[in-house]
Amino acid sequence: MIDILIGALASGLASVLDYLSAHVLTCLVPAFFIAGAIAAFVKKDAILKYFSPDAPRHISYGIASVSGTVLAVCSCTILPIFAGILKKGSGIGPATTFLFAGPAINILAVIYTAWVLGFDLGIARAVSAVLLAIVIGLAMALIFRSTDIETLKKKAMAPSVAGACEEEKPRWVTPAFFALLVGVLVFGASPLEWVIRLSIVYILTLAIAVLLIYYFDKDEVTDWGMETWDLTKKIFPILIGGTFLVGIIAFFLPPETFQPYFGNNSLGANFLAAIVGMILYMPTLLEVPIIGTTFGYTTGHMAAGPALALLLAGPTVSLPSVLVISRIMGAKKTAAYVALVIVFATIAGFVYGNGIVLL
Q1: Which residues are the signal sequence here (predicted)?
Q2: What pLDDT is stored for residue 163 in this prediction?
Q3: Residue ranges of the domains in the chain?
């Protein structure tokens, strides 16, 4: 019994060391700084104000579908924001697009997926999340057209307040700042010689420092630091504890256990993965070690299609979040949303896993 316990704890510790020692410095640390910068320097209100039912669709759905990269939130954090934008008069389509895309295209999760599970799967996750968010939102708007009609009637009866935002720095500064941060991430994790990598990262860091000194005020830099720390303290401990737990689970349930269910790219395997994703609650980033270790994607026991289906369904819906969503927009809309997520996650996994090219 003691040997089993020691073996389980050793498996959990090995899982933590395997994931974090290989990816913390080169992936997670730069990613946290990027996510913190997005949270600090991109105005959230400027994004959310375009979700009205009468806004041009290419604008409302386009912005909503990439909102996760701006807001850097997880499935639990997205729910109060979703409730807020619905209350402010958002269309049901853009709102559900936002609800899906928020956690699905979380910048931290996408980067972590690409670095740990493979660049191809990371790109597939990002692209599929954007496309599925738009399709699901459009489907919800089509199914519940009467909801938008009522929202527009209420909007017509209420006064509108417009806000203004002035540029305080040259337009090129913020894009250049983000480009330099991404450069640190890319070159820091590149296969180049360590001397070359260190030199490039050093130069990029100096450039970032110059921009911060000459173009950002003290409050902005402080806000960036606080946002980065806030994300780190919320996510990093859960990631460590969750990865340790995943290692223990893998000791008792090796990846071979799940191979008969997720080891191929059949429609049934993808559907089952989407269902499992809908049931499980996976905090931000924890879906990566779960798929990589528990279900055995990194060891070849889980096929690519089910892995993508689980990555798409898991972060966006779970039994706890479904209960909350039903209180926000009712059982009928919630059931339709969950069904759409499962169906389209299944289709996306099947298409990706079987190498089908949609023209």
Answers
A1: none
A2: 46
A3: 2-155+216-353
